[in-house]
Amino acid sequence: MERLQLLENWIKTQFPDKDFTLSPASADASFRRYFRANFDDGTLIVMDAPPRWEDCAPFVHVAELFAAAGVHVPAVLAQDLTQGFLLLSDLESTTYLQALNGDPDNADRLYRDAVAALIKIQLASRPGVLPEYDEALLLRELNLFPDWYLAKHLEAAPGPSQKAELEAIFKQIVQNNLAQPRVFVHRDYHSRNLMVTTPNPGIVDFQDAVYGPITYDLASLFKDAYIRWDEERILDWVIRYWEEARKAGLPVAADFADFYRDFEWMGVQRHIKVLGIFARLYHRDAKAGYLRDMPLVMEYLRKACERYHELNPLLTLLDGLENEPPEANVGYTF
């Protein structure tokens, strides 16, 4: 309550002669909160990012980079980085997810716009301005899976041999990821972070952007944890992206089969990470809503592991751990 009062006082200093009311604008998987400030003549979005846990500076930095790339992001109208407050233009309240659930026939048009915006971001890429999506970060994300999904959620902590097997598989995945050309990566470019706007799409929640593998955002977009599409349709969309990216001069693989393999392996890294994050959000942060999204993410992971023989051992390991009763994991020291 004290935090909310600080936020209201800060808004009053920005608009001393205006009355407003605050209403929740969106939920977030982090400690950030978003409110809609309702004025007589319009609305604005206010981000509350407690400095103890969050830093507004990356959001401001990436907003500048993406706006310069020519895509539609919120304008930062006022900022107080010390208190962790940002005042943003309002990109309205309809997410891609809501629009697609309401009318799936819009999918081709909406995804065409999302791909066009993604290509603009990637064309603006240059090293040295965003954190590197390096080996350490990729592995740190992968290790959320054994720590939170296997050990905590399934109560099936991997034993020493299984740990070694997982590490070997993770090494192969990361080798593929790091061998890909690098661009600006939003890192959560999916239906909850794309808004239906003019121009379309409005892009939000980009503060964790990095410089990394070119297929990452594409995997986020088309292997979305929150909405299911037929594999044939995903394949068609990925082909369309690849064709447009080649025309634009982006460094995608010259052979589509190679590019699609990179896309799938990048998806595997993301799905493993997301399962760990969703388990952590439930067990650590009491956010149960993400549990319903786990089966689709696991389905993506399993299908990719079936398609690539190098990933078959991960499927075997999953089968063993998921079918193992919790009491079988108790260890004894004599």
UniProtKB/TrEMBL annotation:
The keyword ATP-binding applies. Residues 22-243 form the Aminoglycoside phosphotransferase domain. InterPro entries: Aminoglycoside_PTrfase, Kinase-like_dom_sf. The keyword Protein transport does not apply. Keywords: ATP-binding, Nucleotide-binding. This is Aminoglycoside phosphotransferase domain-containing protein. It comes from Nitrosospira multiformis.
